[in-house]
Design brief:
The protein is an alpha+beta fold. The protein folds into 2 domains: 48-143, Alpha-Beta Complex (Hemagglutinin Ectodomain, Chain B); 146-204, Head domain of nucleotide exchange factor GrpE (Nucleotide Exchange Factor Grpe, Chain A, domain 2, Roll). The chain has 3 helices and 6 strands. The chain has helices at residues 4-21, 36-114, 124-142, and strands at 145-147, 160-166, 173-178, 181-183, 186-189, 191-196. The strands form 2 sheets. Strands 1-4-5 form a 3-stranded antiparallel beta sheet. The chain has a 3-stranded mixed beta sheet with strand order 2-6-3, with no helix packed on it. The longest helix has 79 residues, at 36-114. The chain starts with a helix and ends in an 8-residue tail after the last strand.
């Protein structure tokens, strides 16, 4: 048998080597050169970096959505304005078409009232025609229809239609053959006029 004292010496040496190899409390694994606190710091830093990247991505997406919403809102406003303008234009065109069809009737009434004989002026039926003429004129006025200025005016091809010429001041409207009318600022029927040919040397 071996000497018990020698065995105790061997055990002590083995225990001593095991203690040297075991890591001290609070340290990392053998040979790593890092401790638990450093590992925790690195882990926290990595997580914070991910959170910052996510926030930046979400902010970029939110900005994109907001710009798209602004663009859509602007497009809708423009569309609504365009629809309203088209609706108003259609209403004006419809009114103009109706007025153009009614103007020949008004022309007849206008001529009838303008040429009525003085001896007939007091008759009831004549007074009735005059009253109808006044109501018709008031209706046109309410619809923003006005007569195109013509007689004595400088000839304007946008508002006048020359149907003949006579001696008189050049390019000056001498007579009105048929009245013209405009709806607001838009001429719906030009005035038919006789224009001076410049033969009157004294004209302006």
């Amino acid at each position: 048998m071996g000497n018990p004292e020698d065995e105790r010496i061997v055990d002590k040496r083995a225990a001593s080597r095991m203690n040297e190899d075991s890591p001290e409390p609070g340290t990392g694994s053998v040979g790593s050169g890092r401790n638990a606190e450093e590992d925790n710091i690195d882990s926290t830093t990595f997580q914070d970096g991910d959170a910052t990247a996510d926030v930046a991505t979400l902010r970029e997406q939110a900005d994109t959505y907001f710009k798209n919403w602004q663009r859509s809102a602007a497009d809708f406003i423009n569309f609504k304005r365009r629809v309203e303008q088209e609706r108003g234009e259609h209403a004006r065109l419809a009114s103009a078409a109706l007025i153009i069809n009614l103007l020949p009737v008004f022309d007849d009434l206008d001529r009838a009232v303008g040429t009525v004989d003085a001896h007939l002026a007091g008759l009831n039926w004549v007074q009735g025609i005059v009253a109808i003429h006044k109501k018709f004129a008031a209706l046109l006025e309410a619809m923003a229809v006005t007569e195109v200025p013509a007689e004595g005016q400088q000839f304007d091809p946008m508002r006048h239609e020359a149907v003949g010429k006579q001696p008189g001041p050049a390019e000056r409207v001498l007579y009105v053959v048929q009245k013209g009318y405009q709806l607001g600022e838009k001429v719906i029927r030009p005035a038919m006029v006789i224009v001076g040919d410049g033969g009157d040397a004294g004209g302006s």
